[in-house]
Fold:
Amino acid sequence: MSDLITVQGVVLSAMPVGEYDRRIVLLTRERGKIAAFAKGARRLNSPFMAAASPFVFGNFTLYEGRNSYNLNHAEIRHHFAELAKNQPGIYYGYYFLELCDYFGREGSDEKELMNLLYVAVRALMNPKISLRLVRCIFEFRLMSIEGWMPRIYECISCGKQLEEGDRLFFSMSEHGILCGECGPLPVDAFRISFAAAAVLQYIAGTPMQKLFGFTVKDDLLHELENIIYEYTAKNTDRKFRSLQILEAME
Ligand SMILES: [Zn+2]
Structure:
């Protein structure tokens, strides 16, 4: 039985295959993003019925076949089944899964991405924090994990530390913030408030367990959305299906 491995992971997607099976995509610590077959997962009494579903975090024992992995045993840690009742929260969740699928790679340790997904999905079920803010935080922290962090601590041109009261500009093409003293500004530069810059710094730098522990006023949220949604769209080259559903709902 040397071909059995156990991985810690989360199910990103589950597709029906044949009459009774499912093909799942897992994001894992040990193997990165991998696909596995869950035989019989669509049979009513199958132990895989619950486990081979999106948002399930747990330990998955897999049999490593010649061309694919096969699910052998699953121990569910968290399933977030109650998220399904939360509209439109569930679509934010699917969007996060799609983003993880987009950035996840086979063979790399995806622990940080898994942790981000876990705290973000939990935040979707917290009525005290707006879904739109959860999305902003998720996207921007994801950008920072994946190496797409813009420069937000100092002016990208002169290196001056940002301070309260500065006139600041954000440039998508230059990946960062410029101070008002540095001209000429790139054509795509637009004003960013010091408060928004401070929130971006907080999202990028705070420990994961504190990430969703704050809220912002509406105008600041609106500003963050304008920056982060566009920044994420510019640094991904796919139109995400769940995002299109979300946008249609709004
Ligand atoms: Zn400057």
Remarks:
- The pocket of zinc ion is lined by residues 155, 157-158, 160, 178-179, 181-182 (CB under 6 Å).
- The chain is about 35% helix and 25% strand.
